[in-house]
Write a structure and sequence with these properties.
Elements: H1 7-16, E1 34-37, E2 40-43, E3 67-73, E4 76-79, H2 81-86, E5 94-97, H3 102-108, E6 113-114, E7 124-130, E8 133-141, E9 144-147
Parallel strand pairs: 5-7
Antiparallel strand pairs: 1-2, 2-3, 3-4, 6-9, 7-8, 8-9
Length: about 150
């Protein structure tokens, strides 16, 4: 059970790039497949074993619950690197670079970059993609991107 109020809306905003998902940008999160363990949010596979002692009886040791979506921090959601790798540039507001782009090396070294080609959107996490594939997250603040 998800107990953090507004989490679905916050995750929708992260993926749609707006504070209020609307129209075609709205995502329908499979709430029945979301699982929180140790302040981490996971998306369970469609066919998953019962976790913990929900069914009673013995507990199975689970190495990885599913796709790690991110960490639940007080008052905010911090997306996981695993989620970035599972997305492409059509799934979220994304900074799109080609493999040979010199800004890519700067991003990978941890440098803050001017966001001259940022798509319209709000401050916060922005997906960084290379040739359409998710690479990681950049923290957008105004017209600048910091490596997450």
């Amino acid at each position: 059970m998800i107990k953090m109020k507004g989490l679905g809306r916050g995750l929708d905003a992260l993926l749609s790039g707006s504070d209020r998902p609307h129209g075609d940008e709205q995502r329908n999160l499979p709430v029945d497949r979301l699982h929180v363990y140790a302040d981490r949010l996971y998306l369970l596979p469609r066919r998953a074993v019962a976790l913990g002692s929900e069914r009673g009886g013995s507990r199975a040791h689970v190495v990885r619950y599913g796709l790690l979506l991110g960490d639940l921090r007080p008052g905010r959601f911090q997306p996981a690197h695993d989620l970035a790798l599972a997305l492409n540039d059509a799934d979220a507001v994304a900074l799109r670079w080609a493999a040979g782009d010199p800004r890519l090396a700067a991003y990978l070294s941890g440098a803050d970059l001017p966001g001259t080609d940022l798509p319209p959107g709000h401050n916060g996490w922005t997906l960084v993609t290379v040739d359409g594939f998710g690479l990681g997250w950049g923290k957008r603040a105004g017209r600048q991107i910091g490596s997450g």
